[in-house]
Amino acid sequence: MIVSSHQLFFIKLFSQNLEDQTMIINKQKLFNYTALITLSAMTFACGGTEGKSETEQESEQMKDRIELVQDDAAKKVDVIIDGKFFTSYIYPDSLEKPVLYPINTANGNAITRGWPVTPRPGERVDHPHHLGLWFNYGDVNGLDFWNNSSAIKDKTKYGHIVHKSIKSVKSGNEEGVLEVSLDWMNSAGEVLLTENTTFIFRGKDDQRTIDRIATLTAPNGEVKLTDNKEGMLGLRTARQLEHPSNKPEIFTDASGVATDVPTMNNEGITGMYLSSEGVEGDDVWGTRGDWVSLSGKIKDENISVAILDFPSNPGYPTYWHARGYGLFAANPLGQKALSDGKDELNFKLEKGESATFKYRIIIYSNESILDGQVNRDYIQWAK
Predict the structure, then answer these.
(1) Which region holds residue 189: left if phi is over 0, alpha if psi is between -120 and 50, else beta?
(2) Nearest-angstrom CA–CA distance, 286 and 213
(3) Which of 39, 210, 211, 374 could form a disulfide with 200 if both were Cys (CB 3.0 to 4.6 A apart)?
(4) What is d(CA 248, CA 121) in angstroms, rounded to the nearest whole number?
(5) Distance of CA 241 to the CA centre of its chain
(6) Please, which residues bridge with residue 200 across strands?
(7) Helix, strand or coil for residue 316?
(8) Residues near 315 by Cβ (< 8 Å), separated by ≥ 6?
(9) What is the distance between the alpha carbons of residues 91 and 161, in angstroms, rounded to a whole number?
(10) How far is CA 308 from each of CA 57, 222, 296, 377, rounded to the nearest angstrom?
């Protein structure tokens, strides 16, 4: 067969197009294969998806950074940030008040004392009512809520706080929110105060934050919160965050009960208080200020724990009931006891009246600890 030059041109053009298409297909195959290998490597590096369904993989991708896990049987709500345990809201029958316990830094070190729930070697074993982070007071219509614990056998002069319900549990990428309802009761089961509290949990690289916003209401009659040094937002810190101490001490509560606090081995004990007014160390006790920080070191982690007092709180700026042995508390109502009689408040609520107490707790670690950072964070929050 004789092929004309015109036909030959089209045959060559078709052959060239076929070759180009083949190259494109081969290149596409190579791209797809390379992408598959790259994706497999990434999947392996990230822990893999082998054995996981599409639903499970999608669930992991959609998982909130700040996760609140409610466990009614265990009477707790766990707070998980970026896959790491942060704290738990716990309300077992064995406690006289709900607390946040334990509380961890971003790197997993507990800033709270373990005793009496999970004792650690070398800890102090005083004040069994000091556990985690709590909120109560030493004189509510003459009853002591602060010092009550399982160590107290005769409860007639003591009050206790009962968890009533979890109103809301919300996880999220920016924050997790827990809303709870509590009753402040006497030993006969009568309600003196109702408490509705919102916890807001946040976290980033080297920082954790807790907002605790509590509204107290007197539903059944007048409630007096008479000046008392035992109050109000309390945190009992890990041994490493205590102040070094070279002498035994005796501390007496509002009921006159004395507790011996012995001198202990100071190795690794690095705590130091600093207030917004520039007061340091044990001198912070009985002073007022917008905030106080407690800095120290646990293992290889530099830590600073700050409690901030909101300007609208009763008794603002709060007095600080901060002890070198590990009690770190803001007490806005115990003004007479903490000022040596210079100030006096004797706060009270009439029937149906409410008051709100708002605090922020910030736990800084390593790179987030900067000179002046607490004050900058306070100004940003308080405004």
Answers:
(1) left
(2) 24
(3) 211
(4) 19
(5) 16
(6) 177, 211
(7) coil
(8) 332, 333, 335, 345, 347
(9) 10
(10) 40, 29, 18, 9
Q: What is the pLDDT along the chain (383 residues), one digit of tens a residue?
A: 444 443 333 334 334 443 444 333 333 433 332 332 233 223 323 344 455 566 555 555 568 999 999 999 999 999 999 999 999 999 999 999 999 999 999 999 999 999 999 999 889 989 999 999 999 999 999 999 999 999 999 999 999 999 999 999 999 999 999 999 999 999 999 999 999 999 999 999 999 999 999 999 999 999 999 999 999 999 999 999 999 987 787 766 656 677 887 778 889 999 999 999 999 999 999 999 999 999 999 999 999 999 999 999 999 999 999 999 999 999 999 999 999 999 999 999 999 999 999 999 999 999 889 999 999 999 999 98
Question: For residue 122, which of 266, 300, 302 has the smallest C-alpha distance?
Answer: 266
Distances (CA, A) of 39 to 26, 54, 72, 262, 360: 20, 16, 41, 60, 43
Please give the Cα distance from 339 to 372 (Å, whole number): 27
Whether 258 and 244 have beta carbons less than 8 Å apart is answered as no
Q: Which of 267, 243, 261, 249 is nearest to 322 (CA)?
A: 243
Nearest to 365 by CA among 296, 308, 284, 307: 296
Phi-psi region of 221 (alpha: psi -120 to 50; beta: other; left: phi over 0): left
Q: How is residue 36 written in tokens?
A: 């598959």
Assign residue 292 a region (left: φ > 0; alpha: ψ between -120 and 50; beta: otherwise).
Answer: beta
Backbone angles phi, psi at 239, to 5 degrees: -55, -40
